[in-house]
């Protein structure tokens, strides 16, 4: 045990002190923060208060387009050509031209800009005009806005899972996200660090240190020490990434005073919502504090929070740790065996295939078939087979998996990694002392039963 | 007393026999030459002793006990294929390897200090292995082999890759290790290089032990009572007690190889010569281990 510990320490320390490790660990959160902050920063830069000059030849919108904090309207008089000249001299955002028309047939609106008018501004103006025209049409037909708001209905569907454990709220999207995120992390971890194990073994072989090592420690100890050491490196890196990303994002957003970038869809929605709120406000000042859009948004947000709260977080986290380590150990020892069987990295291809394929299949299946039908036969069998279970079961867990299935899958995974570790150690102990020999599968299978 | 006793060790790989019923003893405190051509089975035997692999049959006793995994602490092994972790610093590497041999960190650090002073390589401690020359790396590896003061040191082709100066340095170290009571197994195919160093040898050829024993005894067994004489004068040997095998003469200086017959002693030959010529040099022609080996191998092939 003491020797394994020494090996773990060496594997860990030499990797953690590498420049590439330090750079990767520091750079990734910075990049992440940059990607999150930069678009927000750029948007906020162009988001200075907009000033729109309005030439209203119809006279319908006079005094109706009210200035807000981020958009101001300047009414103009005269002809369009005069207005254009006037606009060119200022640095206002846009010139809105409303031609002569009636509320029955509104058309011919044009917005002029010195550069491209953003979709957000365009949508916003469109909405304001639409709302105003609608308002006037309501008034003309004897309805007012307040009555109409009373008529409007808003339906939301709450999904409830009637399982043996009793009722619980179920938000399919949140559940999927939690599972897939865990599966993705496991998938990448196995690949990134499994390959590192393989490289480490090849390095020991090519630098010929291995014979010295094997005269001091057992091949199995050397292999396990390497696998555990590299796992610790990976965990350290992930932990640092999480902590540093959090710090970086917080620090950068505090420094620039921006939130993380909203998605384009959210921008569009925000534009519409703002326009809605404005129109409501301009129509009925008392309604200002409670615009419908905001209400809806708040309720969606609280739904998301509720769904997260309803997820069995402790169970998911526990399963994540288990499948994370189980999957890594299962594949890690196989990667180690490949490293032992070859002389250099170019020879690894033929042996990488059978390891990569189940991983990739599990990954693809998990977000296609498993996600659609988390309790179906494909999902069930793939979450039982140890080669695919670390990924597939993680996708299933947030949806709720019967205890016996979970325990069986875990048991099989443990049996699986005991088995692969056994195979790997048999290949390893023969392979590390074998040089200059191109190995094939037949040869490898003989190694399993060599007496060493 | 023998530090290592090898009894009927056999090892076969998939399609060839590496060792076939090999037995011999290695006395404590000697330098033991394990000799044989490439592929004879030397490395296989060493790997069995260092427990890298196991024998198919046969027994090995270390200090009178059946070989056990913890005996490895008391052995140091310098493999033929040298290698160290390239990205590690010399000091860390030595410390790591010593700790794996069961040394405490404090002991290891203290011993590393004495060894680097002895080899005058203190300034290397902070350097990465990959920045050292091959000869320097070999020195570091030699230190790593003996750092835990094992009582059995196994050196596989120790001089390959060393320049003559460093080879001498290592030779001196080997001798001083023996003085301190360590036993050294010295494996090589270059038999002439170890004759002066080894006390005992075992010759292995084609998986089988050909002969073993103290170097002196082996030579005595194989010597042919032949002496080389160099001197001034006209040498004419007519006595039936002496047989001239070879004779050259140049500017009055002769050189002759003479074999003693009929149980005569070298002194008889010398007396005979002194009466007739001026003797400048009188040397016994002892067969080299190389010659003995070749003779032995051809014998077994013909047999």
From TrEMBL, chain A:
InterPro entries cross-referenced by the UniProt entry: ABC2_TM
Lineage: Bacteria, Pseudomonadati, Bacteroidota, Cytophagia, Cytophagales
Subcellular location: Membrane
Matches recorded under Pfam families: ABC2_membrane_3 (PF12698)
Bilayer disposition of the protein: Multi-pass membrane protein
Protein name: ABC transporter permease
Gene3D superfamilies to which the protein is assigned, alphabetical: Periplasmic binding protein-like II
Recorded GO CC terms: membrane
Main location per the UniProt record: membrane
GO molecular function, one term: ABC-type transporter activity
Domain of life (superkingdom): Bacteria
Membrane-spanning residues: 21-43, 172-197, 238-258, 308-331, 351-371, 378-397, 403-424
Keyword Plastid belongs to the record: no
Protein's organism: Pontibacter flavimaris
Keywords: Membrane, Transmembrane, Transmembrane helix
Location of the ABC-2 type transporter transmembrane domain: 19-425
UniProtKB/TrEMBL annotation, chain B:
This protein's UniProt keywords: ATP-binding, Nodulation, Nucleotide-binding, Transport
UniProt cross-references to InterPro entries, sorted A to Z: AAA+_ATPase, ABC_transporter-like_ATP-bd, ABC_transporter-like_CS, ABC_transporter_ATP-binding, DrrA1/2-like_C, P-loop_NTPase
Superkingdom, natural source: Bacteria
MF-aspect GO terms: ATP binding; ATP hydrolysis activity
PROSITE patterns: ABC_TRANSPORTER_1, ABC_TRANSPORTER_2
Domain ABC transporter: 4-231
Pfam families (UniProt xref): ABC_tran, DrrA1-3_C
Family in the record: Belongs to the ABC transporter superfamily.
Protein name: ABC transporter ATP-binding protein
Taxonomic source organism: Pontibacter flavimaris
């Amino acid at each position: 045990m003491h020797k394994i510990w020494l090996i773990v320490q060496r594997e860990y320390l030499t990797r953690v002190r590498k420049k590439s490790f330090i750079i990767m660990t520091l750079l990734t959160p910075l990049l992440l923060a940059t990607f999150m902050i930069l678009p927000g920063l750029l948007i906020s830069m162009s988001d200075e208060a907009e000033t729109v000059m309005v030439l209203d030849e119809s006279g319908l919108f006079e005094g109706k387009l009210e200035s807000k904090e981020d958009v101001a309207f300047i009414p103009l008089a005269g002809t369009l050509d005069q207005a254009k000249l006037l606009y060119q001299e200022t640095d206002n955002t846009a010139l809105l031209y409303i031609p002569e028309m009636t509320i029955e047939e509104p058309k011919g609106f044009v917005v002029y800009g010195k550069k491209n008018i953003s979709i957000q501004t365009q949508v916003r103006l469109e909405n304001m005009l639409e709302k105003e025209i609608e308002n006037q049409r309501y008034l003309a037909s004897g309805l007012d806005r307040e009555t109409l708001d009373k008529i409007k209905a808003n339906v939301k569907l709450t999904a409830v899972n009637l399982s043996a454990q009793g009722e619980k709220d179920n938000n399919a999207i949140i559940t999927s996200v939690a599972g897939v995120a865990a599966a993705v992390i496991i998938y990448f971890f196995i690949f990134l660090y499994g390959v590192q194990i393989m490289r480490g073994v090849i390095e020991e072989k090519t630098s010929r240190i291995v014979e010295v090592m094997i005269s001091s420690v057992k091949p199995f100890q050397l292999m396990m020490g390497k696998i555990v050491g590299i796992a610790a490196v990976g965990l350290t890196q992930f932990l640092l990434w999480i902590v540093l990303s959090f710090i970086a994002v917080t620090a950068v957003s505090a420094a620039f005073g921006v939130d993380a970038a909203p998605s384009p869809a959210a921008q569009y929605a925000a534009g519409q919502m703002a326009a809605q709120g404005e129109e409501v406000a301009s129509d009925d000042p008392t309604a200002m504090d409670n615009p419908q859009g905001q209400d809806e948004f708040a309720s969606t947000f609280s739904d998301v929070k509720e769904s997260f709260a309803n997820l069995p977080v402790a169970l998911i986290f526990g399963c994540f740790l288990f499948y994370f380590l189980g999957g890594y150990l299962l594949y890690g020892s196989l990667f180690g065996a490949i490293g032992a069987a070859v002389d250099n990295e170019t020879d690894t291809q033929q042996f990488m295939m059978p390891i990569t394929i189940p991983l990739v299949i599990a990954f693809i299946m998990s977000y296609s078939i498993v996600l659609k039908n988390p309790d179906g036969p494909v999902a069930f069998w793939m979450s039982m087979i140890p080669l695919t279970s670390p990924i597939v079961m993680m996708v299933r867990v947030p949806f709720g998996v019967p205890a016996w299935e979970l325990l069986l899958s875990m048991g099989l995974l443990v049996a699986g990694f005991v088995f692969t570790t056994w195979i790997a150690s048999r290949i390893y102990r023969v392979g590390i002392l074998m040089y200059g020999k191109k190995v094939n599968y037949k040869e490898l299978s003989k190694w399993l039963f060599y007496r060493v | 007393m023998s530090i290592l006793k090898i009894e009927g060790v056999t090892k076969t790989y998939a399609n060839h026999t590496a060792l076939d019923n090999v037995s011999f003893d290695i006395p404590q405190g000697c330098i033991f030459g394990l000799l044989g051509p490439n592929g004879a089975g030397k490395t296989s035997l060493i790997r069995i002793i260092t427990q890298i692999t196991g024998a198919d049959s046969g027994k090995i006793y270390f200090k009178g006990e059946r070989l056990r995994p913890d005996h490895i602490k008391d052995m140091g092994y310098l493999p033929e294929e040298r290698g160290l972790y390239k990205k590690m610093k010399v000091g860390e590497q030595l410390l790591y390897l010593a700790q794996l041999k069961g040394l405490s960190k404090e002991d290891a650090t203290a011993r590393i200090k004495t060894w680097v002073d002895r080899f005058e390589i203190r300034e290397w401690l902070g350097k990465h292995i990959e920045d050292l020359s091959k000869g320097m790396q070999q020195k570091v590896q030699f230190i790593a082999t003996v750092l835990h003061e094992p009582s059995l040191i196994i050196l596989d082709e120790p001089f390959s890759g060393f320049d003559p100066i460093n080879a001498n340095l290592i030779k001196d170290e080997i001798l001083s290790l023996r003085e301190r009571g360590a036993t050294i197994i010295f494996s090589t195919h270059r038999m002439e290089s170890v004759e002066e160093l080894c006390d005992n040898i075992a010759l292995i050829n084609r998986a089988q032990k050909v002969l073993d024993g103290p170097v002196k005894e082996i030579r005595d067994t194989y010597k042919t009572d032949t002496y080389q004489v160099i001197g001034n004068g006209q040498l004419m040997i007519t006595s039936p007690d002496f047989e001239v095998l070879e004779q050259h003469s140049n500017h009055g200086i002769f050189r002759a190889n003479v074999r003693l017959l009929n149980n005569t002693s070298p002194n008889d030959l010398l007396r005979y010569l002194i009466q007739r010529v001026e003797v400048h040099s009188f040397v016994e022609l002892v067969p080299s281990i190389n010659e003995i080996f070749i003779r032995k191998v051809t014998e077994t092939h013909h047999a």
